[in-house]
Amino acid sequence: MKTTRLLLLSMLCAVLPLLQLSAQDFLSNTLRDELNSHFNSLQKQDKPPYFMAYRLTDIQSYGLGASFGSLIADDYNHKRMISAETRIGNYEFDNTHPINDMGMGYGFMGSSVQQLPIEDSLLPIRNSIRECTDGAYKASLEQYEELLLVKDTLKIKFNDFSAEPKSDYFEPVVAAIKPGAEWKDYLKKITALFNQQGYILEARAMLSASTVRNYFISTEGTSVVQNSFITDLSIAVIFNCEDGNMAPYVKTYQVRTPDQLPTEKQLMDDMAQVMLIIEKLRKAPKAESYTGPAILSAKASGVFFHEIFGHRVEGHRLRQQTDAHTFKSQLGEKILPDAISITFDPTVAAFDGVPLYGNYKYDDEGVAARKVEVVKNGTFLTYLMSRQPVEGISNSNGHGRCEPGMAPVSRQSNLFVTSKTYIPETDLHEKLRKMCKKQKKEYGYLFEEVIGGFTKADRMSINAFNIIPILVYRVYADGRPDEMVRGVSLIGTPLTMFSEIEACGGKQAVFNGYCGAESGSVPTSTIAPSLLVNKIETQQQFEIKGEVPQINSPDQAK
Prior knowledge:
Low-confidence stretches: 1-23, 102-107
Number of strands: 22
Number of domains: 3
Largest sheet: 7 strands, mixed
Radius of gyration: 27 Å
């Protein structure tokens, strides 16, 4: 009997890992089988696809929220989304080709999106994949047949798709990350701090923790399965200023997993600082429109480079004649001061202990991530590339990215700005004051904290940018203490701003966030030093008058 038990136990130990592996491989195996089956079947059509791929994203997310000391959200969400991509024709010319010189083309419209069952049930999943594939092929066929009617009139300057080396990569299934139960109390404590101030109109703390599992399977033989984690904690406060206008202040923490978030004590200390800042912002004067010298903190500088530079080196824009093509004629030319270099490197997971959101191993086209040197010693070298070739650049450099359910284009990853020369941080203020005196300005600006920005890069509108700060100071030329101001945005045009960069500070900082563009929202990071600029332009932000309550708060009611 003992021998039998031992034998059964050993057999079980041998089988369990196989069962686990089988469960882990269920989706990738199913995707591969369905892709091969449908691709082979479609080869019987008059116009068969030459390329097909599936992108499947499995997302599990937990969300917690609190306002004024009470829990307002406690959510769990699990969804799967698959997109099928089909290309008819060949690498040189396929259904995605632009139909005219204005760039009004099909892009990646030869694709289809479908919600997938979250249970590993073979038949329902196969049915969803079949519907998705059928929709993608029909859309591609319609596009291709329309293109054939005008092909002889088209100016074909570059291939529509690049051939890339096959990738094979697999990460095992991992348990979904989840905030600990203590975070409900933390969020309530954080927001309860704002209860006693009658000028606080809204105070919310939102925590989300997402586990994302991405699958990419193609008929070229590429199979990539990888995991990623993103955890966001944001505290947003809206308050009345003494002049009656409303203003916001936001404090954010972006990490990979909940265990990387600050401790309760650190959070409470941070909130005490937030309260002090809000007290000062309430009394701060509104800034006037201004041109003159300024300092951009390291985080503000990162957003600055992301908006005015990063979007203009996304290669797919060269295929769009409506785009401004800011740097098209400047390859090999100086566009920045000699000391400055810019790279995009998605292979870096953290900087100075801070997790980087723009990190990944393979992009959303199954191409291996790699470091791309875009500017070296001020000279512009190349563009970020997906598998959409452009004139003079035939292949991807691992930057084809997209939001789940959307089609990839070239997008930013981890943007690194470095300088061979710098001014110590302690000397930046004095340099700014000297520049103000030279330009006969009463003061310059210090942009300390920003919440984001946006840019316009097309030739149909103004080729400009807008950076949105939340903490700005006037730095007076005569040495008076810095003065906090509010209601100002940093604006301008890219080439003009580049020419105004005077120097870099000696310390870099990380800004994590999400970037929205043609292929949806993707996580990105900037790592940049502070900047001293000779001239910036600002404009006043739009402000809204706060509503004075007509009914007393409960603690005041008699």
